[in-house]
Specification:
Shape: flat
Distance between the termini: 41 Å
Largest sheet: 12 strands, mixed
Helix content: 40-55%
Number of domains: 4
Radius of gyration: 38 Å
Number of helices: 29
Strand content: 5-15%
Structural class: alpha+beta
Length: 905
C-alpha cells in the first residue's frame, strides 16, 4: 500500500506557522490601510463640499426655474389654468426629468408656485411704517404649506369655488416672524391694490411656524419666512425704510394673484440633495449645471414650461470655488500617499525576498531534483495565496467597516493590489533566483558583487524621472500632474540607490584602519557588515524612502502650523485684542491686565480717517505709548523699533512717526507734514522709521506716533493689545464686559483649521506619514530578524573561542550600525535636499488657511529640524536595540543548539 503524501501547502504551513501568521498580519494591515485611504479622502472631501453648500445657503445654490406670468392677450380662463396647482405640478415633474446625474434633487425640499416678483404698497395704516412709507407685500401661492409648517394659530387658507383674476377676496397665512414684524393677527385683512379693479382683500387665517426654517423650502425665497426692512437712498440723516412681507395664499387661489399690481412669476425651485452630491463628481456636476443654465437642459426646460423660462443658480460658483480649493490640496495628499505606498510595497517585496533567501537551499535542492521552474513557482504562489488572500479580504472588510463612507471600488482595487503584490513577491523572487539549476549558489555580498548593466540602466532611468519630476514641481507647482506627486519618493529612491553604491566603498575604507585595532570586535563587525547580502538593499530603500517622506511630510505639517500662527498673529496683532468703536472706559486696561494669563497690555488710539496734508485718501494713525508698544512689537515680531525712536521730543517740533513703506514713499521721510484727525485737531509728524507691519492695524497704510503728542480726545485708547502665553478668554471677556469686542489669537487660529477639507486632508496626511514610518520600522525589523539565526550561530561559535557576552553584544551592535547610520544620515540629508529642491513649487496656503482673508500671501515649505532628526535617530535606536536584545537573548541560551553539524553559515 502506497503511503499518502501530505500536500505541499499544508506541510509548509505546518512547518512555519509563525511566519505564515506574521505574513497574514502584515498583509491584512496593509490591505486595510490601502483600502481605507481612498475612502477617507472621499469622506473629508464630501464633508468639505457639504460645508461649502451650507455656507452658500439655499437661496444661492438651489436651481431656480422661473417663467413670466401668462400672456395677457390669452383668454382669462387660459391664464388662470396656467397658474393652477395641477398645471404647475405636472410641469414640475417634467422639469425634474431635465436634471441629469450626478445632480440629485431633494423632492421634499423642492417647491413650485406663483408669486409676486415686484411687491406693491398696501394702504392699510395699521401695518407699521417706520419712516412713514407704506408697507409692501408680495403674494405667493406656494405648494406644500401643510407638510412644511405647523399651524400656530388659526387654520390653513382655503380657496372657495373657482378663483380667477377678478376675485376680490382671498385667504392667506403668514409666518410667525412676519406676523410679529407687521403686527398681523388671525383675522387681519390686508388690501392689495388691483389692476383696473377693486383691491384684493386678503384675510389672514393662520400664523405658521416653519418645521425646517433653514431648509431649502423656506430659505430659497427667504421672504416667505422672514420679512425685510427695506432701506431707500435718502439725503437726510435717517434712511427711508418700509416693511416688506409675504402673504401665503392657498395654491388653488393662485389666479387671484394675476389681478393684483406688480409683476408676477411662475417658479419651480429644485433643491439639490446635499447628501447625494460627492466631491469626485464635481467635474460632471459643473457640466450638468452649465447644461441647465445655458445648454440643452435650458432648451428642454423651455419646451416643457414656457418659451421665456430662465434657469438660474449659484451652484456652479460653489462648485468652481470648491474644485479650485480641492485641486490645490489633493496633490499634497498624494505626495504622502505615494511615499507610504512605496514604502509599503517595498516591505511586501522585501518580505517575499527574505522568504526566498531563507529557503534558498531548499528551493535549489528541489530544482536539482528535477522540479520545473513553472511548477515550483505555482506551488509557491499557492502556498502564499492560501495565507495572503484571506488576510487581504479581512483587511478590506475592516477598512469598509472602519470608514463606511466613500467609494468601494477604489478600496477594493487598492486591497486587491496589495494582495496581488504579496502573493507574487515570493514566487517571482524565487523564479528569478532559481531560473538556472545550481546545487550551491555563491554568496552575493554587498561588498563584493558589482551592479549589473540592467541595474545601471534602471537606476539611470529613475534618475531621469526624478529630475523631470523635481523640475516640473519647481516650474508648475503641485498642479503639474501625477509625476509631481512622486517627486519626493523618487528623490528618496535615487538617494537609496546612490547610497547602496557608496556603501561597499565606505566599508572597504573603514576595514583597513579597523584591522589595525587591538580587539577583534571592530574588524569582525565591519567584516560581517560587508558580508550583508545584496537583498538587504531593500530595507535601505524602504528606510530612505520613509525618512524622506517623513521629513517632507513633517515639514508640510510644520509649515501649515507656522502659516496659521502667522495669519492669526497678523489678524489680531497680539495674543488678544479688545476693540471698540469709540474711546474705551478709563480703568479698563487695569482690569484687563489683572485677568488670568495676561502678561502685558498696550493701549492704543486708532484714528482710521486721519487725512495727511488734507488729501482725500485717509491713513490710519495710531497713537501709542512707545515703551509698551515697542515691547509688544518686538515680542510679536511685527515691525519692532528701537527704544526712543518714537518718543515725543522734549523741545517740541514734529512728532517722530513709524510708517508703512507706501506711506513713506508718498509723503517722504525728510520733511514734516500735517495730519488732520477725526476730532478736528491736527498734528505735525515726520517719518523716521519705516516698517511693513505693525500690531495695531492690518492695513498696508499706517502711521504710528507717540499719543502723548495728540490732543486729549484723540489720545484716548480705542483698542487694547494683550500679550500672554495662556490668555483666558472667559476671564478676559468678563473683565471687558460690554465695553468692546474681544478677539483671541487662539480662536482666530482655530477658524483657519475649521474647514473639513483642510482638517481632513491634514489628518490623512499625518496618518500616511506615520504609516510610512511604521513600515520603515517593520522593514528594519525584518532585516534584523532575518539575520537572527545566522547571528546566533556566529555568537555560539565565537563563545566557544572565548568571546565574552559583552563582546558579543558589541559585535552585533557594531555590525548593525553601518547600515543604520547610513540610512539615518542619508535619510536626513535626502529629506533636507528634497525640501530645498521642491519648496519653490509647493504652496501650503490652501491646506493651511480655510479663509483667504489673510495677509499671508503664500505659506512656504521650510525644513523642520524635528522631522529630519527624530526619525533618523529612531532608526539608529531601533537597530541598536534589536541587536542588543538579540545578543542578550542569545547569551541566555545554550550554545549546543546553535552548533549543528553541516551548518556552514
Amino acid at each position: 500500500m502506497n503511503p499518502v503524501v501530505a500536500p505541499w501547502v499544508r506541510t509548509r504551513l505546518r512547518t512555519a506557522p509563525l511566519t505564515a501568521g506574521a505574513l497574514a498580519l502584515l498583509v491584512a494591515l496593509t490591505a486595510c490601510l490601502a483600502a481605507a485611504f481612498p475612502r477617507a479622502v472621499d469622506r473629508y472631501e464630501d464633508a468639505g463640499l457639504l460645508r461649502a453648500l451650507r455656507e452658500a445657503r439655499p437661496d444661492h445654490f438651489t436651481v431656480q426655474v422661473t417663467a413670466p406670468q401668462p400672456d395677457v392677450m390669452l383668454p382669462p380662463a387660459e391664464q388662470a389654468a396656467a397658474v393652477r396647482p395641477d398645471t404647475l405640478r405636472d410641469q414640475f415633474e417634467k422639469v425634474l426629468t431635465t436634471v441629469r446625474a450626478p445632480l440629485a434633487i431633494d423632492r421634499a425640499q423642492s417647491s413650485y408656485g406663483v408669486g409676486t416678483a415686484k411687491s406693491t404698497p398696501v394702504p392699510d395704516r395699521w401695518i407699521p411704517r417706520p419712516s412713514g412709507l407704506p408697507a409692501h407685500v408680495s403674494l405667493f401661492a406656494h405648494n406644500g404649506l401643510a407638510e412644511h409648517a405647523r399651524v400656530r394659530e388659526g387654520r390653513l387658507p382655503r380657496a372657495t369655488g373657482a378663483v380667477d383674476a377678478t376675485a376680490t377676496e382671498a385667504e392667506a397665512a403668514v409666518t410667525a416672524a412676519t406676523a410679529r414684524s407687521l403686527h398681523i393677527k388671525v383675522g387681519s385683512v390686508v388690501h392689495v391694490p388691483g389692476v383696473a379693479r377693486a383691491p384684493l382683500a386678503v384675510r389672514v387665517t393662520a400664523i405658521l411656524t416653519p418645521r425646517d426654517p433653514a431648509g431649502a423650502y423656506w430659505s430659497t425665497l427667504p421672504l416667505l419666512r422672514t420679512p425685510t426692512l427695506v432701506s431707500l437712498p435718502s439725503l437726510g440723516s435717517d434712511p427711508a425704510t418700509y416693511w416688506l412681507g409675504a402673504l401665503l395664499l392657498a395654491p388653488d387661489a393662485a389666479p387671484a394673484i394675476l389681478g393684483t399690481g406688480g409683476s408676477h412669476l411662475r417658479y419651480w425651485l429644485l433643491a439639490p440633495d446635499n447628501g447625494a452630491l460627492h466631491a469626485h463628481d464635481t467635474g460632471r456636476l459643473e457640466s450638468v449645471v452649465a447644461a441647465l443654465e445655458s445648454g440643452p437642459g435650458l432648451q428642454r426646460t423651455r419646451d416643457l414650461t414656457d418659451p421665456d423660462a430662465e434657469v438660474n443658480t449659484g451652484l456652479d460658483d460653489v462648485l468652481t470655488s470648491y474644485s479650485r480649493l480641492r485641486s490645490s490640496i489633493a496633490p499634497l495628499v498624494s505626495v504622502a500617499a505615494s511615499g507610504t505606498g512605496t514604502v509599503a510595497g517595498v516591505v511586501l517585496l522585501m518580505t517575499g525576498g527574505l522568504a526566498a533567501d531563507r529557503r534558498r537551499t531548499e528551493l535549489a535542492l528541489l530544482r536539482a531534483r528535477g522540479a520545473s521552474l513553472r511548477g515550483l513557482t505555482a506551488r509557491l504562489f499557492a502556498e502564499t495565496a492560501v495565507v495572503v488572500v484571506p488576510a487581504g479580504a479581512l483587511g478590506l472588510l475592516a477598512a469598509l467597516l472602519a470608514v463606511p463612507e466613500g467609494r468601494a471600488a477604489y478600496a477594493c482595487a487598492a486591497a486587491l493590489a496589495v494582495t496581488a503584490a504579496a502573493c507574487a513577491a515570493l514566487p517571482l523572487r524565487a523564479a528569478l533566483a532559481h531560473r538556472s539549476v545550481r546545487v550551491a549558489a555563491a554568496r552575493e555580498d554587498v561588498a563584493s558583487v558589482r551592479p549589473s548593466r540592467r541595474r545601471t540602466v534602471a537606476e539611470l532611468t529613475l534618475l531621469v524621472l526624478a529630475a523631470a519630476a523635481v523640475e516640473a514641481l519647481r516650474r508648475r507647482g503641485t498642479s503639474g500632474g501625477q509625476l509631481v506627486s512622486v517627486a519626493p519618493v523618487l528623490v528618496g529612491v535615487i538617494a537609496a540607490l546612490l547610497l547602496v553604491r557608496i556603501y561597499p566603498f565606505l566599508l572597504r575604507r573603514l576595514a583597513r584602519p579597523a584591522g589595525r585595532l587591538r580587539g577583534a570586535v571592530g574588524p569582525l563587525s565591519l567584516a560581517r557588515a560587508g558580508r550583508t547580502q545584496v537583498s538587504a538593499v531593500l530595507p535601505l530603500l524602504a528606510l530612505l524612502t520613509a525618512l524622506t517622506t517623513a521629513a517632507f511630510g513633517g515639514s508640510v505639517l510644520a509649515g501649515v502650523d507656522e502659516a496659521r500662527d502667522r495669519a492669526s498673529l497678523l489678524t489680531v496683532g497680539a495674543d488678544a485684542r479688545v476693540d471698540a468703536d469709540g474711546p474705551l472706559p478709563s480703568g479698563l486696561a487695569e482690569r484687563v491686565r489683572s485677568a488670568s494669563g495676561v502678561r502685558a497690555v498696550a493701549a492704543v488710539s486708532i484714528a482710521y480717517q486721519a487725512k495727511p496734508e488734507d488729501d482725500q485718501d485717509s491713513v490710519p494713525l495710531v497713537g501709542v505709548a512707545p515703551d509698551s508698544y515697542g515691547a509688544l512689537a518686538a515680542r510679536m515680531g511685527l515691525g519692532p523699533f528701537g527704544e526712543g525712536q518714537l518718543k515725543r521730543p522734549a523741545s517740541g517740533g514734529p512728532l517722530p512717526a513709524l510708517a508703512s513703506p507706501s506711506v513713506a514713499r508718498q509723503y517722504g521721510t525728510r520733511r514734516p507734514f500735517l495730519v488732520r484727525l477725526e476730532d478736528g485737531t491736527s498734528v505735525t509728524v515726520r517719518i523716521t522709521v519705516v516698517r511693513s507691519l505693525t500690531p495695531a492695524v492690518t492695513s498696508a497704510d499706517f502711521l504710528v506716533v507717540d499719543r502723548a503728542g495728540l490732543s486729549a480726545t484723540a489720545a484716548r485708547p480705542t483698542a487694547l493689545l494683550v500679550t500672554g502665553d495662556q490668555v483666558d478668554g472667559r476671564a478676559l471677556r468678563r473683565a471687558v464686559g460690554g465695553a468692546g469686542a474681544v478677539d483671541l489669537r487662539a480662536e482666530e487660529r482655530a477658524r483657519y483649521a475649521d474647514s473639513p477639507l483642510q482638517s481632513g486632508a491634514e489628518r490623512v496626511y499625518a496618518a500616511a506619514v506615520a504609516a510610512g514610518a511604521g513600515y520603515a520600522v517593520v522593514a528594519l525589523l525584518l532585516a534584523l530578524l532575518r539575520a537572527g539565526p545566522e547571528r546566533a550561530a556566529l555568537l555560539a561559535r565565537l563563545r566557544t573561542m572565548g568571546l565574552t557576552r559583552s563582546q558579543g553584544r558589541g559585535l552585533l551592535v557594531l555590525e548593525s550600525l553601518p547600515q543604520a547610520l547610513l540610512a539615518a544620515a542619508g535619510g536626513a540629508l535626502t529629506g533636507s535636499a528634497a525640501i530645498r529642491l521642491l519648496s519653490p513649487g509647493v504652496d501650503l496656503t490652501a491646506i493651511a488657511l480655510a479663509s483667504a482673508q489673510t495677509q499671508v500671501d503664500e505659506a512656504e515649505l521650510h525644513t523642520d529640524v524635528l522631522s529630519l532628526t527624530v526619525p533618523a535617530i529612531a532608526v539608529v535606536v531601533v537597530a541598536v536595540g534589536v541587536a542588543g536584545v538579540q545578543a542578550w537573548w542569545t547569551g541566555r541560551r545554550s550554545s549546543v543548539g546553535e552548533l549543528r553539524a553541516g551548518d556552514t553559515r
